[in-house]
Design brief:
The structure holds two protein chains of two kinds. By secondary structure, chain A is of the alpha/beta class. Chain A has a single domain, classed as 2-Layer Sandwich (GMP Synthetase, Chain A, domain 3), CATH 3.30.300.130. In chain A, the strands form two sheets. Chain A has a four-stranded mixed β-sheet with strand order 1-4-5-6. In chain A, strands 2-3 form a two-stranded antiparallel ribbon. The radius of gyration of chain A is 13 Å and the shape is globular. The mean pLDDT of chain A is 87. By secondary structure, chain B is mostly helical. Chain B has one domain: Cytochrome c oxidase-like, subunit I domain (Cytochrome C Oxidase, Chain A), CATH 1.20.210.10. Chain B is 76% helix and 1% strand. Chain B is globular and about 65 Å long. The model of chain B has no long low-confidence stretch (mean pLDDT 89). Classes of the chains: A alpha/beta, B mainly alpha. Chains A and B meet through helix 3 and strand 6 of A and strand 1, helix 2 and helix 11 of B.
Chain lengths: 108, 434
């Protein structure tokens, strides 16, 4: 897990919030899956900019996941509005899965 | 790491387009198994009997094709990495095929090649043209070329050939379009459909979905190109040899080509399975993987049929029936069973929860169907399939009837779960949590 941010303190809260957002097919949260690339905060305009990817391009659950990320961030940071951006550069690969995520996926 | 290029999200196909295909398929499967049970006594007479023709076409078109069309309308954005060109054309495809298929099946069942069969054939042909046009326009709008789209497009082109030939064979009963009887062209019509449409579609879609659902990194474009080349070469050779060669032995050349393609696809799926990230494989994926192996079975039957026909100049009806049964009730049905429960719950879950905050949603897509009903469905399906096949090969009507009865139960359980999924509504507390 390697998330770029301009505000470490607020980012750690955001990470905790996004740990409750799961990829419904895999059953693992998007942080441990390594889907989130960047979370920036603009305290003047009260905006959160979250850049993330999906395990596969044109994932059928993509719209639902992005929508949930936005709603979750806005629910926790109630003064802020969140903008969620999707990128596939770099594309996701399994090396981005955290140690906890690997333990979860290796369960038989 | 630097993050660049924000990509807009491509919208998935609307559920209203897709769900009718799944509902139609479930009904067609149930009716097919009931017809199989009712025709149990006459199945071994000749493969060109009204009952067999009706069941085969209901299975191939009402079940296999409608399910594939439904799933492919949903999966086109995933496969070709672009949106579906037209939802209205997708609905028109459903409407035309949905009316055409029962007309054709009733025509066959009553062995009346007049108006119902002809209109059925015409409507199905128009439906295929509409689908092919929609697919072509969708692929044209796609940002990049990909092998999965090519498989699907080529398969649909073969479906067009199959349905055109099928309609011509119906007309051949009233006007002499061909030199020989329609019955003589049945192997050509059947194999262009089975190999060209079903096999290419299943490989094109499966090579994308199986690694995706297994969360596997495996992708091998070169191997897929080889499979594509082998199967299409084999099929073209088969068509030419069928039309211009007298010797059945030459048919081994296309059989070897197609068999090699299937073996390579089995290897492709095995490598995807070995490289999966998530160790636990769920039940629908298990039956999908078994179906991929089952793909090898019909080729063995075909080899027996060709060898037997070459050396005895006769055709064993029970082996021919077994061959068709393994294809439609084995390979195609097993993979549709698996893929239904990997796709439909997601479509309905998206419909119900897409704009809800997912963290307050405690229901996952896989919770939309009953695991218990699914397990019983699988049990009755495999038991029924095995008993029926043994009955066919042993010419035993009692075993055939028992097997067909168990398949009816499997189809009922399948339909039960489909209804549960389609009619799913979020419990009130899920809404109250938003």
């Amino acid at each position: 897990m390697n998330i770029i941010t301009n505000n470490n303190a607020m980012c750690s809260f955001a990470i905790d919030v996004l740990r409750s957002v799961e990829d419904p097919e895999i059953g693992l949260n998007i942080i441990d899956l390594g889907l989130v690339y960047q979370i920036d905060f603009d305290e003047e305009s009260k905006k959160i900019f979250c850049t993330m990817t999906l395990t596969t391009q044109f994932c059928p659950m993509g719209e639902s996941i992005l929508n949930t990320v936005k709603l979750s961030l806005e629910k926790f940071f109630s003064d802020f509005t969140a903008e969620v951006y999707l990128t596939f550069e770099p594309s996701w690969n399994s090396d981005r899965i955290s140690e906890m995520g690997r333990i979860f996926l290796n369960r038989k | 790491m630097s993050v660049v290029n924000h990509t807009p999200l491509t919208k998935t196909t609307h559920w209203k387009v897709v769900i009718p295909f799944y509902g139609y398929g479930a009904i067609a499967l149930l009716v097919s198994t009931v017809l199989l049970l009712l025709s149990a006594n006459n199945l071994l007479n000749h493969y060109f009997s009204p009952g067999n023709l009706a069941i085969t076409h209901l299975m191939a078109l009402g079940w296999g094709t409608m399910m594939i069309l439904g799933a492919s309308h949903q999966l086109i954005p995933v496969l070709i990495e672009s949106e579906l060109y037209s939802i209205k054309l997708a609905m028109l495809t459903f409407l035309l095929a949905g009316i055409g298929i029962p007309l054709l099946v009733v025509g066959f069942y009553e062995f009346n090649m007049g108006a119902p069969a002809k209109w059925g054939g015409r409507l199905i042909l128009i439906s295929v043209i509409v689908y092919l046009y929609n697919l072509f326009k969708s692929i044209k709008n796609s940002r990049k070329e990909n092998i999965h789209a090519l498989f699907l497009f080529t398969a649909t082109a073969w479906l067009l050939v199959t349905s055109t030939l099928g309609l011509m064979l119906i007309y051949n009963f009233s006007f002499p379009l061909f030199q020989k009887n329609s019955v003589d062209y049945l192997p050509l019509h059947a194999h262009v459909g089975i190999v060209g449409w079903f096999l290419l579609t299943i490989i094109g879609v499966g090579s994308k979905l199986i690694p995706m659902f297994l969360i596997s990194k495996y992708f091998n474009s070169n191997l897929l190109w080889r499979i594509y080349g082998l199967i299409n070469t084999g099929l073209i050779l088969f068509v030419l040899l069928f039309l211009y060669s007298e010797s059945l032995l030459y048919l081994f050349i296309p059989v070897v080509c197609i068999f090699s393609g299937i073996v390579l696809f089995v290897i492709y799926c095995y490598k995807a399975y070995k490289q999966r990230i998530k160790l636990k494989v769920d039940e629908p994926m298990k039956i999908s993987l078994v179906a991929i192996l089952l793909n090898l079975f019909p080729v063995l039957f075909l080899i027996i049929i060709i060898v037997h026909a070459t050396f005895t100049n006769t055709v064993s009806f029970s082996v021919v029936m077994g061959y068709g049964f393994v294809i439609f009730f084995g390979w195609i049905t097993a993979i549709i069973f698996g893929m239904t429960f990997k796709t439909l719950p997601f479509i309905v879950w998206n419909k119900v929860f897409q704009y809800k905050n997912q963290i307050t949603v405690t229901i996952n897509p896989k919770d939309l169907y009953s695991k218990l009903i699914y397990k019983w469905m699988i049990f009755f399906y495999w038991t029924g399939f095995s008993i029926f096949l043994i009955g066919l090969l042993m010419n035993n009507v009692l075993l055939i009837s028992c097997g067909a009865g168990l398949l009816v139960i499997a189809a009922l359980f399948y339909g039960w779960n489909i209804i549960r999924i389609i009619l799913f509504k979020a419990p009130l507390d899920e809404y109250n949590n938003q």
